[in-house]
Amino acid sequence: MPVSSIPAQAARPGSAPHRHVAVFNVPQAGHVLPTLAVVEQLVRRGHRVSYAVTAQFERHVRAAGATPVLYEAADQGEAPEDLVLGVAQAIGLNLGAVEALGAAFADDRPDVVLYDVYAWAGPLLASRWGVPTIHLSPSHVPYEGVLEEMFGLDDVSRFPGFAGLAAALTAHGCAVGVHELTLAPERVVAFLPRAFQRRPETVRAKECHYVGPALADRSFQGSWRRPETGREVVYVSLGSQFTRRPDFYRSCVEAFRGTDHHVVMTVGQGVDPAELGELPANVEVHVSVPQLDVLAAASVFVTHAGMGSTMEALAHGVPLVAVPQMAEQRVNATQIERLGLGVHLPREEVTGQSLREAVRRVAADADIAAGVAAMRQAIDEAGGAAAAADVVDAVLAGLPAPVGQEAP
User: Do domains 20-212+383-397 and 219-381 have the same CATH topology?
Assistant: First the structure.
């Protein structure tokens, strides 16, 4: 599929000359959404952005100003809780799409490749093209102990499918192997502040830019308005992947029935709200909501503790009740409690009473309020999308000037 151009805009004084930026990602909201504000920044600075993703996110990518380069991926349903299996699926997806993506860019090669942590087609093709890469990390940058804490493994070679990935790296002329690519990437933009990073002193990336969450307009998701009831808003969401949890949602209804909270709860596509029984007037249930709108009004967020949702809440100064559904989220939940940003409520301990008590605690705890305020300041100072785009511009500024343009 050909890559069409985006109308160029004037570059900022002192910025890199207009370039072609390619972004490679996996088809999951928690990976795509953190990048969209960066795409907007790059387009605003005059760069042309092509974005490799599946049709599910075509509308999101176009709204950010990029040209979608679509690849196909079989619908595998809800992501597996076992991260090892999830990584194996991502490897298969990437190796299956790399040749089609290479052909799509054959006559329009990018100047730099930005790639998600699980989008290995990006560095594979960048090696073939001889262009620099920037690793986009929607979660913790690999740290000492990450394999054991998140995957229960002691070596990346134990991942199913990594032999095939290693062979593909060799075939594409990659200068680094699987261990370096996954555990010690050359240049990283991380969508969290260093203050939240797990064991930051052990990170082996050669360059690590902690820019915090990259937030921008998401009007393509619709809108939500706070009811004029005067009640404090509690937002409940398990994200986009682990939503088939009717028992959890019933516990939430039980927790807040008859309270003075207004509850906004998302249940995803896989749960019929009728399964939750009769809903009290203070509980509204949706398949999904524009999360940033709800967080702007929320006093507490009951969350799966995915990194994107966690960062968006903290950027809005909202304390957290973390109910993680898988290992990566449990690491985040541990950080949330360790750093005084909320409480970790293991999902096997969730009842109506435990949820209600956890929400009341985080809403009233002065130490948690102080911790959230400090993390919000760290996020503000990290720079967000503009800081991420500055990293891209710095890489592009070091390249030879394109034909017809002078280097700044």
Answer: yes
Q: Which residue ranges of the chain lie beneath pLDDT 70?
A: 1-17, 75-78, 402-408
Non-local (6+) Cβ contacts of 380 within 8 A are: 212, 315
What pLDDT was estimated at residue 76? 60
Residue count (the chain): 408
Which region, left, alpha or beta, applies to residue 65 given φ > 0 means left and ψ of -120 to 50 means alpha? left
Tell me, what's the pLDDT at 406?
A: 44
Question: Alpha-carbon dihedral of residues 211, 331, 93, 189, nearest 10 degrees?
Answer: 10
CA distance 274 to 247: 13
Looking at domain 20-212+383-397, its CATH superfamily turns out to be Glycogen Phosphorylase B; (3.40.50.2000)
Asked if residue 261 lies in contact with residue 234, where contact means CB atoms within 8 angstroms, the answer is: yes
CATH code for the domain defined by 219-381: 3.40.50.2000
Q: What's the pLDDT at 17?
A: 65
Domain assignments of the chain as residue spans, ordered by start: 20-212+383-397, 219-381
Instruction: Give me the pLDDT at residue 142, please.
Output: 95
The three-class DSSP label of residue 341 is coil
Task: Pull the structure tokens for residue 358.
Answer: 């956890």
Cα–Cα dist 271/91, whole Å: 29
